[in-house]
Amino acid sequence: MNRTISGALLAVLAAALVLLPFWANSGLVFLAGTTMVVAVFALSWNLLFGYAGLASFGSGGLFSIGAYTMAVTLRGGYEGQFLLLIALSTAIGGAVAFAIGVVALRRSTGIFLAILTLALAELLRITLAKIHWLGAEDGIPSIVRPKASIGVATVDLAQGNHYYWFLCVACALLVALCWWIAHGRFGRTLRTIRLDTERAAFMGVDTHRYRLVAFTISGAIAACAGSLFAPWAQIVTPDIGNMMRSTQPILFTLLGGASSFWGPMIGAFLFSAIEFSTRTLVGIQEIITGGILLGVVLLFPTGVAGAWNALVARLADPYRAEAKAKATTLRPVKE
């Protein structure tokens, strides 16, 4: 029943996103497209945190690498090879993540890895702000939305809402890829490593290699999300990879729930809905938004997805749910 209800809600949300341009204004459409991109970005981070047990605070830097790669290549006149440019941006992001992981994962974990990756992301942001060829602090504006060639068909993504629908398809494919990774043999091995690294190593699992691959995949998907975002926003600046961008997927994961695959996406859409609803409250928007987020985190420690799963389980079988709750709170005392 849980999967049926969740699947139905997912289908309704997907249909609403696809049909959004037919009834919503351009501002809401832009917000929805941005939310889809950052939701995929958050999913890539949770592959690293929720499955491999690694906390990186530098994912915003990889996002900016993908965005800048796309912006520079489109400015160079390669808009006719848009799909190849996405692949190139993804490959560069994965290569950078691999290079960082080779050095960092052998020498640091936990909070040390988080601080190291945050420092590298800030170093990248400051470097981009100093390069005049890349626009320095002003960034690269007026990024064109190119044409996408798929076999014999060519779609002009600059026309109307074509790029929005392209984002829907691209984000859906990336979500499907993340689902396949998380629920396959590789994802199960990562969860084993997260739960008990020493036991996994004793069983013959090369924990360093698996974590390095997870770090590389997470970085590649983050860069891919950045490459999709550049033509959508039509401007990239060094602040696209600042500390706020790096902490964004962490916030989304806390809101939605790190233990659920859909948690980061739920958190991303929930955060966007809260910000959109409080946009007219000038001067107190941040206070109200922060209070709502704090309340959600305190009321639902396992995130919105965890609370939803618990509610559906209770409605489906209230007696079993009540017995399970009693079993976890009233444990027999051993004599």
Short description:
This protein has 335 residues and is an all-alpha fold. Helix content is 72%, strand content 2%.
Structure commentary:
With 335 residues, the protein is mostly helical. The protein has a single domain (2-327), classed as ABC transporter involved in vitamin B12 uptake, BtuC (Orthogonal Bundle), CATH 1.10.3470. Helices cover 72% and strands 2% of the residues. The chain has 14 helices and 2 strands; from the N terminus they run αααααββααααααααα. Strands 1-2 form a two-stranded antiparallel sheet. Strand 1 and strand 2 (153-156) form a beta hairpin. Helix 3 packs parallel to helix 5. The longest helix has 27 residues, at 207-233. Keywords: Cell membrane, Membrane, Transmembrane, Transmembrane helix. The chain crosses the membrane at residues 47-70, 82-105, 111-128, 163-182, 212-230, 250-271, 291-311. It is found in: Cell membrane.
The figure for the number of domains is: 1
Distance from first to last alpha carbon: 41 Å
Helix content: over 70%
Q: What's the main sheet like? A: 2 strands, antiparallel
What structural class do the secondary elements suggest? mainly alpha
CATH 2nd-level architecture: Orthogonal Bundle
Kindly report the spatial arrangement of strands forming the biggest sheet.
1-2
The pLDDT mean sits at 85
Number of strands: 2
Order of helices and strands: HHHHHEEHHHHHHHHH
Approximate strand percentage: under 5%
Shape: globular
Q: Using only CA atoms, what is the Rg?
A: 21 Å
| CATH domain topology | ABC transporter involved in vitamin B12 uptake, BtuC
Q: DSSP helix count?
A: 14
pLDDT < 50 runs, ≥5 residues: 327-335
CATH class: Mainly Alpha
Protein name: Branched-chain amino acid transport system permease protein
Pfam families: BPD_transp_2 (PF02653)
Subcellular location: Cell membrane
Transmembrane segments: 47-70, 82-105, 111-128, 163-182, 212-230, 250-271, 291-311
